[in-house]
Design goal:
Layout: E1 2-6, E2 17-21, H1 27-40, E3 49-52, E4 59-62, H2 68-80, H3 91-98, H4 102-123
Antiparallel strand pairs: 1-2, 3-4
Helix pairs in contact: 2-4, 3-4
Domain HTH bat-type: 67-117
InterPro entries: HTH_bacterioopsin
Protein name: Transcriptional regulator, contains HTH domain
């Protein structure tokens, strides 16, 4: 674990505070810690970034904008097999679990998916790879 404390804003715009970098061999342990921190600290100056290593280096995906309802719905969707191929759960199954309409559950999952896809694309959007935008 690396801990870096700053007393003034840095050139990159990082605000004063403490930045911690941690590595885990077990993804479940990392997920548990992120969930604990995200739910335990109710501070506007607190944010959690999930860093995922890849062949091209780490990519940061901010998870602090995902609501508790979106996160719990996404966690349940993964655990019950909604994202398996082939799917072993239906949207209706998830809706029943949360006592919400299929439309509401679809909106929650779409919000998480949209956030992840945009973060993934932004992290891989190198100048030489950019396609013409619409």
């Amino acid at each position: 674990m690396a801990i870096h404390e700053t007393s003034a804003a840095t050139e990159s715009g990082e605000q004063p505070g403490i930045r911690m970098t941690m590595s885990f061999a077990d993804p479940a342990t990392a997920r548990e810690l992120l969930l604990f921190l995200g739910r335990s600290l109710d501070d506007e100056s607190f944010s959690v970034d999930c860093v995922v290593p890849s062949d091209s280096g780490p990519h940061v995906v901010a998870v602090d904008t995902v609501t508790d309802a979106q996160l719990s719905t996404a966690e349940y969707a993964v655990s019950c097999g909604y994202y398996d191929d082939p799917r072993s759960a239906r949207l209706a199954d998830i809706a029943d679990e949360f006592d919400r309409s299929e439309s509401a559950i679809s909106q929650r999952l779409n919000a998480v998916e949209r956030h992840l896809v945009r973060s993934f694309v932004d992290a891989n959007d190198l100048p030489d790879k950019r396609a013409e935008r619409c």
